[in-house]
Amino acid sequence: MTPADLVLTPRGVRFMGRYIPCSIGKGGLTSEKREGDGATPRGVHRITGLLYRADRLLAPAPWAMAIGKDDLWSDAPDDPAYNTLVRAPYTPSHEHLRRADPLYDVILLTDWNWPDATPGGGSAIFLHQYRRKGYPTEGCIAFRRDHLLWIAAHAAPGTRVIVR
Q1: For residues 113, 116, 118 and 121, what is the CA-based torsion angle, rounded to 10 degrees?
Q2: pLDDT (tens digit, 9 = 90+) per residue, 77-133?
Q3: Segment 33-39 long-range contacts (CB within 8 Å, at least 24 positions apart)
Q4: Using CA atoms, how far apart are residues 125 and 1, in angstroms rounded to an integer?
Q5: Which of 26, 33, 58, 114 is most buried, judging by how many CB atoms fall within 10 Å of its CB?
Q6: Cα maximum dimension of the chain
Q7: Is the pTM of this model over 0.70?
Q8: Spatial distance between the Cα atoms of 72 and 144, rounded to a whole number of angstroms
């Protein structure tokens, strides 16, 4: 491990010498991730992308990409585009990345079950903003907005996310 790794601990995520409070999946941690189980997958994941709502905030880092109005994330295990960014119109099951609430205003994408997804192995495992302190996610790791923006400004593509 290095200080540049994001490491999930009982105190929160440790990153660059700081402990940052976070929320994890309502299903706790799992070594056997399945689509819809609400659990955060254990393992060593890597940051693969940074998306943000350009209509709500400035790019949190030079490598960030704006979320478009038609951007979706496939969570349809039987579709070849499973666990990838897709664009509307897209009829299989998916998540809207451009949400009315602020949860996906900034999204750090991970390589969980990507780029070659195992059908049903879990999708859309992101780092994003939480609803409120202590409110669980559907499997992601979530942070207070200012903490997420700080992480996004300091993380880089390939940064490791270690979940034990």
Answers
A1: 10
A2: 999 999 999 999 999 999 999 999 999 999 999 999 999 999 999 999 999 999 998
A3: 33/112, 33/113, 33/121, 33/122, 33/125, 33/139, 34/120, 34/121, 34/122, 35/75, 35/77, 35/120, 35/121, 35/122, 35/123, 37/122, 37/139, 38/136, 38/137, 38/138, 38/139, 39/139
A4: 21
A5: 33
A6: 44
A7: yes
A8: 23
